[in-house]
Write a sequence for this structure.
């Protein structure tokens, strides 16, 4: 069986995410096909979705304009997995603390934008992630952080005392960019290790 993965391609690290999901699938002996989602009508055919970073206000506006937003919500309601990274997490959350972001409400968290500083404050850190045996080389670029967590949300990792990886149902959200590392373990956790660990 081939895993059909859709990368929301209105902005962000599309090709990097595509390579990461292909590596994760191959590690499980599974074929994969990656599709770029830029318009409505494609999400329903996907087994998994990736929501890359970028600029959260722009991403949310384009998702609504193109009719992709309700398709992503139905994907999650059907129990299909989503990996939302950096700005993708901001768009996926219930409270982005910014009226310009038309959030999807997929993860019951409040997100603080640019929690660790601006672009020049970007950094890489070895992150202990629940479910991984070894630290993950997390890349933080204008990264958000989770400031409040709902009762059904599992915190998978923290940095500087703040949640930076969370899971609720089929949705895994990270404040960092796992696709920039060459390490597919976060994609593995999102799509192949669905059980709570």
């Amino acid at each position: 069986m081939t895993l059909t993965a859709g990368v929301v391609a209105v902005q962000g690290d599309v090709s990097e995410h595509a390579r990461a999901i292909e590596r994760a699938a191959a590690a499980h002996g599974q074929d994969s096909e990656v599709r770029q989602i830029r318009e409505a009508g494609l999400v329903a055919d996907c087994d998994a979705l990736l929501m890359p970073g970028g600029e959260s206000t722009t991403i949310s506006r384009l998702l609504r304009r193109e009719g992709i937003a309700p398709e992503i919500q139905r994907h999650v309601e059907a129990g299909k997995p989503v990996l939302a990274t950096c700005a993708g997490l901001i768009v996926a959350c219930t409270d982005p603390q910014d009226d310009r972001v038309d959030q999807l409400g997929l993860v019951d968290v409040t997100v603080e934008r640019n929690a660790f500083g601006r672009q020049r404050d970007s950094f890489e850190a070895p992150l202990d992630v629940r479910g991984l045996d070894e630290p993950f080389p997390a890349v933080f670029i204008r990264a958000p952080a989770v400031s409040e967590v709902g009762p059904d949300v599992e915190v998978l990792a923290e940095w500087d005392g703040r949640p930076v990886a969370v899971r609720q149902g089929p949705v895994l959200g990270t404040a960092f960019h796992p696709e920039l590392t060459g390490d597919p373990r976060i994609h593995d956790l999102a799509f192949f290790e669905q059980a709570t660990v």
Residues 14-27 form the longest helix (14 residues). The CA atoms of residues 84 and 173 lie 5 Å apart. The chain has one domain: 2-191. The chain has a mean pLDDT of 91.
